Amino acid sequence: MNPNGQSRTPSRLGEGPTALARLCLIVGMCSIFIVMLASAVPESAKDVMYWIQRSIVSAAILILLGIFFKYPLPSRRPQGLTEVLIFSTALFLATWVTGLWPGVYVAPLLPILVIGSWLVERLRRG
Question: Is this structure's pTM higher than 0.70?
Fold first, then answer.
């Protein structure tokens, strides 16, 4: 442990925004299991479980968009964040499962923005 009381070994999720982005991806994808569990509950509880899953995925997408807009240029992003943002396409599946149509259109948008920002920065540097 260092003097701050924190361990020097890095977390498997990373640090800072990279860890938050990875956590959003993991939780967003695991929310698919909520839909699977919804098949085992009474009809009256299914809608509640679907809306819980939709809320989780929507929050994950919005947090990832917020992280992207905080670090729009790849050269200024923390290590590993670009890859996580590109893999956020996986949230498309989580939105498609319950038919959260705004999420179906927004989830693929994030990787397109990431790749576009990478191309713009690459072209500027020549």
Answer: yes
AA letter at 5: G
pLDDT, tens digit (0-9, with 9 covering 90-100), for 45-77:
999 999 999 999 999 999 999 999 999 999 999
Contacts of the segment 71-80: beta carbons below 8 A, 24+ positions apart: 71/17, 72/117, 73/117, 73/121, 74/114, 74/117, 74/118, 74/121, 75/121, 77/17, 78/14, 78/15, 78/16, 78/17, 78/18, 79/14, 79/18, 80/14, 80/18
Instruction: Output the CA angle 86-92-98, nearest 5 degrees.
Output: 160
pLDDT at 1 over 60: no
Its sign, for the CA torsion 71, 24, 14, 109, is: negative
